[in-house]
Design a protein that fits this description.
The chain has 68 residues and is α+β, with helices and mostly antiparallel strands. 25% of the residues lie in helices and 16% in strands. Bound molecules: zinc ion.
């Protein structure tokens, strides 16, 4: 699974492509998302984004993707 990170707010999402037209957190266009590796994510960043991701996905009625 590929990881994509918003170049503006740091929100991380998993998928073959960015599954949004705009970042669900800050609203930036998906072109701002850059592909990253799991090893690029620091521990604090990972925890922060895991929480953020869960909140956002749950609010949108989406399933929580597997951990990385
Ligand atoms: Zn963002």
């Amino acid at each position: 699974m590929m990881l994509w990170k918003c170049g503006h707010c740091g929100f991380i999402v998993e998928g073959k492509t960015v599954p949004f037209e705009n970042c669900p957190v800050c609203g930036y266009a998906k072109a701002q998302f850059k592909q990253i590796q799991p090893s690029d994510i620091g521990t604090l960043d990972k925890v922060k984004n895991k929480t953020m991701r869960f909140t956002v996905l749950k609010a949108k009625g989406l399933s929580y993707p597997p951990d990385f």
